[in-house]
Amino acid sequence: MICLVLFYTIVLVSGLASAPIRFSLGAQVGYTTYKVFEIGDGQLFHGNATVECLMGNSSYMAPEPCGKCKVTPVYCKVGKSPQYFVLGDGVLYDQRGAIGEIVANHQFQFDLPSQSSALFNKGWSVVSSNGKRLLSLNGSTRFWHCQAGTNGLYKLYDASIGGQCSPVYIVVLQQVW
């Protein structure tokens, strides 16, 4: 148990540059988390499909006696999906092996090969915040979703690109196999 507590202490402070799981992503807007999808050209977006965590979320228990201790959720677990992401040494990959990056227009997408003009293609990590696992880029968990047209779809960015944008967190969702 001590190892687990120490592990989570490290995660809270520095984040994980590698995550040994396949995961999905969600865009947290207020108290609602929307499922993030990747389209054929590597762009990420979300619509109105919400995420509900499956029962039996991973958690750890504090040693007894602990007074007012709480069970802390580690990952929201979601069903298996053919789309997934993995993190290795600060580089984010999709199921095709394409690299997650912030391109010149600040959009978050996956490319193979990486675009030469990409602003960031490494520096990704998973951090813990308020009982959730969030995607972080160079220590920042603040991302933006910007409405793309009038069809209710939003694309993800690392900066606001206009009045159609608002801040979001990108939640890491562990896939259950």
From TrEMBL:
InterPro entries: PIR1-like_C, Yeast_CWMannoprotein_PIR
Keyword Glycoprotein: no
A biological process from GO: fungal-type cell wall organization
Pfam families xref list: PIR1-like_C
Molecular-function GO term, any one: structural constituent of cell wall
Keywords for this protein: Cell wall, Secreted, Signal
Stretches assigned to the Cell wall mannoprotein PIR1-like C-terminal domain: 90-168
Signal peptide residues on this chain, from the entry's feature table: 1-18
Location in or out of the cell: Secreted, Cell wall
Main location: secreted
GO cellular component: fungal-type cell wall
Stated family: Belongs to the PIR protein family.
Name recorded for this polypeptide: Cell wall mannoprotein PIR1-like C-terminal domain-containing protein
Species whose genome carries this gene: Candida albicans P78048
